[in-house]
Design goal:
The chain is an alpha/beta fold and about 120 residues long. It has three helices and five strands.
Length: about 120
């Protein structure tokens, strides 16, 4: 008596075709464009927050913090003393003259970072 054989080739072919159809239909339904009707924004009010601390580095290496002169020599200590108790999520804007030394800019910038401020913006023209 001959043993019956199970031929699974047609079964695998059918399953692969079904898998391909499933993959195509899922990707089409996932990446359909969804339209969203957004509300109209106010064009009169800008979306900028007011800066809490503004640092200006002039060409002659004079540093102004909120329009008050601060010596460069001990900038980290002075800045930390005056602004160390501010909220660390406050905005800090740095406006530096393009002709200053890079080392001076990095000294001021790293002092602000070491004080703990995380939102630092660099102002440009």
């Amino acid at each position: 008596m001959k043993k019956p054989e199970l031929n699974i080739t047609p079964f695998v072919d059918i399953m692969l075709v079904l898998l391909a159809i499933l993959m195509v239909s899922v990707s089409v339904s996932t990446y359909q464009e969804r339209t969203v009707n957004l509300p109209q924004g106010s064009k009169k009010t800008p979306a900028m927050k007011k800066a809490t601390i503004t640092i200006i580095i002039k060409k002659d290496a004079e540093v102004l913090v909120n329009n008050q002169r601060m010596p460069v020599k001990n900038f980290l200590e002075n800045f930390n003393l005056k602004y160390g108790n501010y909220n660390k999520n406050s905005l800090v804007y740095i406006a530096a003259d393009k002709d200053i030394k890079y080392s001076l800019f990095m000294k001021i910038y790293s002092s602000v970072v070491k004080t703990g401020f995380t939102q630092i913006g660099l102002l440009t023209k």
